[in-house]
Amino acid sequence: MHHYIPYAQQWVDEEDIQEVLETLKSDYLTTGPKINAFEDKLKEAAGAKYAVAVANGTAALHAACFAAGIGEEDEVITTPMTFAASANCALYMGARPIFADIDPRTYNIDPKDIESKITRKTKAIIPVHFTGQPCDMDLILKLARDNGLAVIEDGAHALGAEYKGRKIGSIGDMTTFSFHPVKHITTGEGGAVTTNSEALYNKLMMFRTHGITRDSKQLLKNEGPWYYEQHFLGYNYRMTDIQAALGIKQLEKLPLFLQKRRAYVEKYNKAFSNIEELIIPYQLEAVKSSWHLYIIQLKLDKLNIGRRDVFEALRQKNIGVNVHYIPVYDHPYYRKLGYRQGQCPNAEKLYAGIITLPLFPKMKEEEADYVIESLLEVIENGKSVPVVER
Ligand SMILES: *Cc1c(COP(=O)(O)O)cnc(C)c1O
Question: Which of 72, 123, 217, 244 is most buried as measured by Cβ atoms within 10 A of its Cβ?
């Protein structure tokens, strides 16, 4: 039996470990110099003026929704083809997530469907750069401008991705990232928001620490050098210096990580592009994906077996396949909030036929070969035999 191959995994090396150990021996375990150093490096990687490191990607989305001024009665448009956090962040603010359907080619949110769902209550759009392929940002930004909406990009899949030569992290009002171990770089748990706006940056910084400021320019009065003020209800969403230290070293390897991911995608695409029962990921000309996920779509009408059969056959072969994602509004909690099936037919149709294959920079050539060989075998055995007319 082949050893287990997960769908994603971190790559932490000796250098990363050394940096973490040194930080543990230093004066600051949190709110120290590693945070700033990590944020500086992240600004560069995302092409943004400001970066705010936080506890995780979900906290980053929450902070961005707060900074955008999203509140009760507001509507926020996002995609159902994402992790629940992209919509939960609107609920945290008392707002209502509205789901716009996906483009069946790119699997990203469809700007035409966004447009049809804008109402007087709409406050923001949260496009998700699904699998690392940037959304159609020109159209999304135009819709936002024409309707006075904020754009918060969920870039959890898209660190290092580019849209028309611009880095993801520098385009919308704010972009959020996650540094969970399955993502491009890891800090254990971790996240960040990038922005080019100083006003948003100040709000994000305060939200991360209880809504508190020590900045003399922002204080309403000043009672002495010990003095600080809480201006609104924030959270403790800080990242530790231990995590930031890991992040600094991980960011140095981002170009290598991206290169490895892209090479494996090419390998998969080459192996699967001529298989009639499979649809490989479609890529737009104007973008450069960061390839967080490699999703293969089954042409179920050409197979005798279902998605579940293919999935289970691969798991039997010790391949940690996965499915990204269950449409967010299909979760029982969202059903309780009144969301019903059928609102985004393209997303539902896609969900029925997709499987995520292993893709991570530390993956070995031999592991990728085994995944390819296994999927081809399962598909070969599951082909529908054409009915011969007599
Ligand atoms: C991972 C992920 C998040 C949440 O990030 P955490 O760091 O796990 O909180 C949000 N959105 C998407 C699309 C993600 O993949």
Answer: 244
